[in-house]
Design brief:
The protein is mostly helical. It contains 3 helices and 3 strands; from the N terminus they run αβαββα.
Length: 77
């Protein structure tokens, strides 16, 4: 299994969300197209509350925590 470009973009956008569930993220219509598309896909997968970002769902929060852990394991210290 490999990460394709779309999945990598989704992970990159997911990592931009604040660590707290009290704050969300808004992807404006003037953002780069990859961000708009990734935001839509994250919402379709049930990770965010809105097609343009919003808040992370419980599943989205879990994905962010997992991504943060993975990043910490593979990034140089």
């Amino acid at each position: 299994m490999q990460f394709n470009n779309a999945l990598t973009e989704e992970i990159n956008l997911l990592m931009k969300f604040p660590d707290t569930s009290m704050e969300g993220l808004k992807v404006h219509h003037t953002a780069d197209q990859w961000m708009i598309d990734a935001a839509t896909r994250l919402h379709e997968k049930g990770l965010t509350s809105q097609h343009d970002g919003g808040y992370l769902t419980d599943l989205g929060q879990e994905a962010l925590e997992t991504g943060t852990l993975l990043f910490g394991l593979i990034s140089p210290q």
